[in-house]
Design goal:
homodimer, alpha+beta, L-amino peptidase D-ALA esterase/amidase, Ubiquitin-like (UB roll), ten-stranded mixed β-sheet, six-stranded mixed β-sheet, 16 strands
């Protein structure tokens, strides 16, 4: 069953009963920072529901985990929330006891400023690591953000800009669809451009094996916040988010570095009035909601890769025919994170030698003489094979160059050993990435970030 | 017991009874290639022993493994060899049955040209992947190389240049030391600059777990050839080489990509006349030989990192206090291969946030509040700590910048959880690396390389 969704404007305030705001309180210290948050000087956002909402969350599995992630994961377990406070410019990571106190202060101050009861606020942070939060600025920002709250697209636009760090573009989406006879809406915003290869779980704790193995991590925090006026039971919402993240945010990589702060939250306030989606729902309702959430997460995740630091080309790496899902994932991640493959993408070089080399050293079981490698346009089934059963095809160099020339293309790797597959949304490695990240050593405030 | 060795000239021909040569037979197609083998146009080398030598080898564990590696690993098992033929410009990898036939032809043609009995030749190749070997050129080169064989340093210089690809400098060493009352010598040459993170085993087959886990592979072939006139029993020689490689070539990374062709060979011809080093030897003899081999391998390995593609800074990453050796290795490799850590090294930025982030997402068990991070000069015990127990120290930004400013420095990571340690010899990531590797899409011959 393929579900079509209508994209609408309004982002996170498109669903009924959600308000947003984004303000500047100088957490970013824009005089010295490297953020390219051009002109839009905002660094604190609020996302508020008129009524308490059911909540689900996914968090970084990095063992070095920021204070806001710990506080947020703890609160998400309770299942209900009404506001998310998010800041950019400071990750509040590696900040010790003071960092934990500051993260708790952010949520309780936000609850007080909104007149909400304790436990209703969640928190997310992104920015420099190892710098104590400027709490006077944060508190002033929260008060201003409460005063600025509103229901318009402009309010959502302010919020999405306020969570950006090295992002060059705001990333948002909203959909409208029918669920149990009612019109429901789902909206989302996200940020992330570097330190990007999320591997999130529902608790932030490491599963014995992450879905797909995840041999290495990511870096440049990604944050995602999703709102919906659909009514969804809490456990179903958490399972649905896990499923959606597994196929979206946990499948992207910009630079292979997993951040200390990766967080995705979804708030469902039920104001659309549908019969709650839950274990007693019709399978159709469950399916439609899952599809909508998948769509929102995948589109947002792809926007992160497209806006990755210094990224010129976006490549969807599709591995199929693996013996196990873990093998497919391992091969896809090895290719997606290989410095040599990524630089060849940058150069528009259809270099299958580097690709098969990365497949060969991955943790996946592979047989050189069975490997096929090919290219297609995004979502096209017309594949130009450069390698079949480990040997070059008759595709010409000119044809192959044309296949890898577009800003976006798909790389198909068929291992011909089994039935498992995996996908990674990856990016090239450019001089701009290196230049951007080699740091500004005139600025001591960048020490941890 | 610390052993001192006298460095001498002569490289691989310093040991008694070894000859070498290096010639140009246009395997490199220098008109179109990107190799920076400036002025010295050589691409085929021979290393010959006057008498049959005991041999040991270590080979890439990449499942996509080049024909010469397969042929060489098979022959090394027999334990005796007298000549190594090596070419640059073509890796003879992913070349199917023709590639295997060509690798076998290279060894048998070399044996015939030298009048050696069958089975005496070993082979190594490096260069483009997926291109059939130009065997007419190779055969002409072998004949010329046989005619050019000689015992002088100039002959060794020709050989070392002939194995280079993107290397900018020849890499060689020789030592002289006493063993069982006799003067013995050991010499070595190597090549490698990109596609460098070797993970070699004695058979090329993957152990259940490689020493130190090895979560990901390497790329830009490394080749190493070591000669000695010491007499060493075959099994002892293999064990000694495994030990030496485990602490040298298998501990380096330039770009995290493991090659299809990584190979290290050692030939011991016994012409020094010492009582063979073996299981019946004195522990002192075994120890001295091991120490000499370790020294040769480590110095050669470090030369590869220093001459890595686009490398400006070389960083020794020392992880200690891990629960297990696997943990120490995983943490060291995560840091050594992190794009964000490597770009910060390039920028001279003492960014501990990126380092602790990489430690946190590694497969190692770590506790943020126990991690210490510091810097020292090479081999110095005077460490400037930037982080203690997860919190910034009072070291000033200026002091930390000074610690990471030199072309070589050591990064110390103390996990404070156990007694295991690991080291990685790593490099920064620069714009030059990206520029060099983004490929030359005007050149179809680079397709696989």
């Amino acid at each position: 069953m393929k579900t079509q969704f209508k994209e609408i404007s309004g982002s996170i305030v498109a669903p009924t009963g959600f308000l947003a705001s984004g303000v500047f309180c100088d957490i970013k210290k824009l005089g010295t920072g490297k953020g390219s948050n051009k002109g839009e000087k905002r660094d604190l956002a609020l996302i508020v529901s008129e009524t308490p909402a059911t909540v689900a969350g996914m968090f970084t599995t990095n063992q070095v985990c920021a204070a806001p992630v710990k506080v947020c994961a703890e609160r998400v377990k309770k299942g209900t929330a009404q506001v998310v406070v998010v800041n950019s410019g400071n990750a509040n990571a590696c900040t010790g006891k003071q960092g934990m106190a500051d993260a708790r202060d952010m949520v309780s101050f936000t609850e007080q400023a909104l007149g909400f009861s304790a436990g209703r606020a969640l928190v997310g942070s992104t920015g420099r690591i190892g710098v104590i939060m400027p709490m006077d600025n944060v508190r002033a920002g929260i008060i201003e953000a409460v005063l600025e709250l509103g229901y318009t697209t402009a309010h959502a636009d302010h919020a999405v800009v306020a969570i950006m760090t090295s992002d060059t573009k705001p990333k948002q989406i909203a959909l409208e669809f029918k669920l149990g006879g009612r019109t429901v809406r789902i909206g989302g915003i996200c940020k992330g451009a570097g330190m990007i290869q999320p591997g999130m779980s529902g608790t932030g704790a490491r599963p014995a094996a992450l879905p797909g193995g995840h041999p290495q991590g990511l870096h440049a925090t990604m944050l995602g916040f999703i709102t919906t006026d659909a009514a969804v039971e809490r456990k179903v919402l958490q399972v649905a988010l896990q499923e959606a993240v597994a196929h979206s945010f946990n499948r992207i990589t910009v630079d292979g570095d997993m951040s200390t702060n990766d967080t995705v939250l979804v708030l469902a306030n039920g104001l659309a009035g549908n019969k709650p989606v839950g274990r007693a729902s019709s399978r159709a309702d469950l399916h439609i909601f899952q599809a909508a959430l998948n769509h929102v997460c995948l589109e947002l995740a792809k926007k992160i890769v497209r806006d990755g630091e210094g990224v010129h080309r976006v490549v969807t790496v599709r591995v199929s025919g693996a013996k196990t899902v873990q093998d497919a994932d391992a091969a896809a991640r090895a290719v997606a994170n290989s410095a040599l493959v990524k630089t060849s993408w940058h150069g528009g070089d259809p270099n299958w030698g580097r690709i098969i080399d990365a497949i060969g050293y991955s943790a996946a079981t592979v047989v050189e003489e069975k490997i096929d490698i090919g290219y297609s346009a995004p979502s096209s089934k017309k594949i130009l094979w450069s390698l079949k059963r480990g040997q070059p095809t008759k595709a010409t160099f000119k044809q192959l160059c044309a296949a890898v020339a577009p800003k976006e293309f798909e790389l198909h790797i068929q291992l011909n050993l089994g039935k498992s597959s995996a996908v990674m949304y990856a990016a090239d490695l450019t001089e701009e990435y290196v230049d951007f990240n080699k740091g500004d050593v005139t600025d001591a405030s960048s020490l941890g970030g």
